[in-house]
Design goal:
The complex is a heterodimer. About 8% of the residues of chain A have low confidence. Chain A is α+β, with helices and mostly antiparallel strands. By secondary structure, chain B is an alpha+beta fold. Chain B is 23% helix and 39% strand. Chain B is built from three helices and ten strands, in the order H-E-E-E-E-E-H-E-E-E-E-E-H. In chain B, the strands form two sheets. Chain B has a five-stranded mixed beta sheet. In chain B, strands 3-6-7-5-4 form a five-stranded mixed beta sheet. In chain B, a hairpin with a 2-residue loop joins strand 9 and strand 10. The chains are: A alpha+beta, B alpha+beta. At the A-B interface, strand 21, strand 22 and helix 19 of A face strand 4, strand 5, strand 7 and helix 3 of B.
Amino acid sequence: MSKVDLAQFHQAFFEESLDGLDAMETALLALEAGSDDAELVHTVFRAAHSIKGGAATFGFADVAAFTHVAESLLEEVRSGRRAIDKPIVELLLRSGDCVRGMLSRSMGGHPAANAESEALRAALAAMISGGGAPAVAKAVAVSEDVEGWDIAFRPFDYLLKTGNDPLRMFRELAALGALTVDTSLDKLPSLEAMDAESAYLGWTLYLAGPVKRAAIEAVFDWVDGDCELSIVAREAAPKAVAPVAAAPLAAKPSRDAAANSESSSVRVGIEKIDTLLNLVGELVITQSMLTQFADGVDASQLELLRHGLGQLQRHTRELQESVMSIRMLPISTVFNRFPRLVRDLTQKLDKQVNLDMRGETTELDKTVLEKIGDPLVHLVRNAIDHGLETPAKRRAAGKGDTGTLRMEAFHRGGSIVVEVSDDGAGLNRDAIVAKAIERGIIATGEGMSDEAVAELIFEPGFSTAAQTTDLSGRGVGMDVVRRNVADLGGSVAIRSTPGAGTTFTITLPLTLAIIDGLTAAVGEEIYIVPLVSIVESVQLGADAIRSVAGGGELFRFRDAYLPVVRLHDVFGCEGSRAKIEEGIVIVVEGEGTRIGLFVDALIGQQQAVVKSLETNYRRVAGISGATILADGSVALIADVTGLVRMQARRKAA
Amino acid sequence: MSQSSNFANARADETAEATQYLTVNLADEEYAVDILAVREIRGWTPVTRIPQAPSYVLGVLNLRGVIVPVIDMRLRFGLAREEYTATTVTVIVTVAGRNFGVVVDAVSDVIDIVPSAIRPVPDMGTAVDTEYLKGLTSVGERMVLLLDVDKLLQPQDAQILEAALPAAEEVKAVA
């Protein structure tokens, strides 16, 4: 028999299983919300079934055994023998979390089962045998305490036809511990009556050693329903095992472990690949056309050359767009985690929240998607914990009992906007000002605009939560949100109306791989300034500059004075223009602060494919990366946020 | 790939235990670089200067879409800078997964050196700090100095890191 290394499929199994769990969770939440769509139950069942099958195939016996029990419960629901109710959904949701934990442990090569999964499995089994919704499970033997297992196994006569071989199963059992086998021949017919392809034998086995029940069950997993099977523990000493409460279980499964194992592969729609293949084909044709042309250069064929070059340009651009689209995934991959989060939070805080998600199909670069999840979780937690009120307070304020939390994603210009808004109490100006004074961030709140007050919550270590909960209010949060978003090249804005709610608006670039930039000359060098951070370019007269003590220069822009940053000073360029009136000042904004970048001249606008300087060199202050210009030379991309920080530091020094 | 590696394959059979070296000229002396570290040899092309870089880091160039820093070997060793001519070349070297371009006066030859022919470097007045030399050998009448590419670039890396650290701390402090 050829040996296939199953390990090569493990990653795919884990990814599919995690996807399955997500689908299962979504369906369960819909069921809990009162949907009676039978398809939802099927979805949950299918997910559990494929995880079980996969786990058994790839040798994750604990996972297979666990999902087997969950599947049995689901089978009862599916066949209509049991109505789905809240306790079942709750138990299944928790089982989903548990399987996620088991998978992530398996991924790390650790044993998947632990006390929590054993307890949950028992709770599931109790739910099946208990008929209704049992409050307390029967005493469960925790397998570590047993001396061995008595197994009675009698296959139905067609077992061999299903491709199962008892001998192979016994070998697997023998690998678990010392195995004693007694064969019973009582059903064996006489030779002339015997069908060589039927199973007539029965076995009584004794497996010695502290083996887990799950491991044994996994061996018999594939013959389940095709045999009579009983597995009974032989206990070392009669010992009362504490009953395990079916619900609620104390240990809250941690989802963080699963979140850490973000997959680094992208599943791509086949039509995207087809487009790509098609474009590459076109490119090859154009290339051969141009090569042919080069063989016999002739002035009369110039038109042909121009045509070929035009085609080349078009195909290259389409190819680029097409490759980019492969990295784009719908934001629903991030949004999907929120129904569960909101459900858990509202139950915990005794609030009623209706989650309204829109624009889930908006596509974003995978890198951006991976990093936007945590900031969004912070915002949603904040909104439910601080923003939305309890039903009693809402009634007192003349609003409906149920608050609304809206998450919306949409395109605006070349950016993606993600809004998280609630119809809660809004920001409490007095509390924020008081807290900021207490923390020494400001001296007084008088004369501060509402916007300026709102900005205070982004200060590090700021939190107005009256009491620290485990949800939010640990003083980390909004500053982290702003920094994470800034790292992605985006920005966060806040808008709040007292009594009517708060809206956070996150603006993100579509992709991190390509930026639109303005090319600017400084001396003999060319720098690229990202278009998103540019407010305006202005030409100033010599008299527009105010010099301040310490060598700083300011100029008036609209109703504010902004510092001038001379790029040739910062980057040490030679041969640049020194007089303000001879060059151009580009007004840029980073982290909410504006500065003017003084350059010699603007050359034009171009899309820049961002290349890393760090791969072979190192990070350079004020530079976010490099790109390649049309002539093949390298141009550096100015890091506006970095330049703003550098300017702030110079001011502080 | 580069012509040098083809060269290497052609002559590999003749001298099994010998290591192949690429020799380059620098300030009238001949230096040898382990050919396995050499990725490519290209004519000198102007590079894009990087701000806040040490003087011997000339800038970065575009190596088929990858940004590669370029070092002037003369400046690295504290020699006078020469005008770049038609024979000036950039040798692209890969050390520890990182690519660097090294500008030298010219490339001269590929030679086989048997380990037994390598003699220790006496303390002498070469232009290059003997710390960067693995040894020396003679090829016919010529003396060839063996550059230790790893060592040559390690202090380089270390200095780059040192230069980067204060910058990183400042960024952190501001953030």
